[in-house]
Amino acid sequence: KVIAPISDQKGKVLYAYSIEEKDYPSFGKYAFVQGISSIGIVEKAIEIIKKQNADNIAIFAQNIGIQAVVVKDFEKRLTAENIKYVVNVTNQGETDFRLTIAQDKINRFTKFFVMMFPPERDIVLKQLLEAGIEKKDILGFNLDMGNTTELHTNIPTITYDCGTEDFVESIQEEFNIDNTTSAAEFYDFVNIIIEAYEALYTEGKKPTAEEITAYIHNKKEYPCMSGQCIVNSNGFILNKPIVRIYTDNKWQTMEN
Q: What pLDDT, on a 0 to 100 scale, did the predictor assign at position 23?
């Protein structure tokens, strides 16, 4: 939102990585934002809840814009599915969630969805486990983003598609890192820019930002490393979320 006006002024294509804000207009004339949709996160979570034959869920989310978008979609869908829910809205910097967890248990909530950023995310997870909640009854979001510890093992997490196993291994070896979250999305965008440039380039004339932007919009949908890329009219390049779990000392994709 801050850089897009500069992108427009300079005539440069802009790329960002986030969750789709479906009610937000285009960030700029040449701007693209790649990621998963709020609705996609919600639908995947409800799919998991139903598979577990659960009829309730307690959601932990921070008072941050993008999380509020997901919570709003959650409330609509959970109501439609007749699934009992409570939203525990927290603030960044909070460190004690024990009273909230105790109240959720009193109200007979047995499933918990933690959609927060660290360090508060890991504090909530730790306090849930201390309260006797089993890992099988916890669902995370983006647990694979950041440092993975024993705390995160065997907790399924809704997250971004990380690409093929070969791609993940090549990134890990090249950069000596375990966490490859978002690598596939950046790889995809570099690829589509290269494709657009090669398709539009004529000798002595480089393609303009307008031409590259139009090319990507006209693609509408195409296969990519992060699954399938779908371009909407607001410049969001959407991918479907996946479910991963950390076990045997590595992140693995669960059956979707």
A: 52
**pLDDT tens by residue, 203-242:** 888 999 999 999 999 999 999 998 899 998 888 899 999 9
DSSP track, 206-229: PPPHHHHHHHHHHH-EEEETTEEE
**Do you find a cis peptide bond into 118, omega within 30 degrees of 0?**
no
4-29 pLDDT, tens digit each = 788 888 889 988 887 665 555 567 78
Nearest to 39 by CA among 68, 88, 77: 77
* CA separation for the pair 81, 84 (Å, rounded): 9
Distance CA 86, CA 128 (A): 15
Q: In this structure, are residues 18 and 1 in contact, taking their beta carbons and an 8 Å threshold?
A: no
Cβ neighbours for 91, distance < 8 A, ≥ 6 positions apart: 62, 63
As a whole number of angstroms, the distance between CA 64 and CA 197 comes to: 37
User: Which one, of 1, 16, 13, lies nearest residue 186 by Cα?
Assistant: 16
Q: Which amino acid is at 200?
A: L
Pairing mode, strands 56-62 and 84-90:
parallel
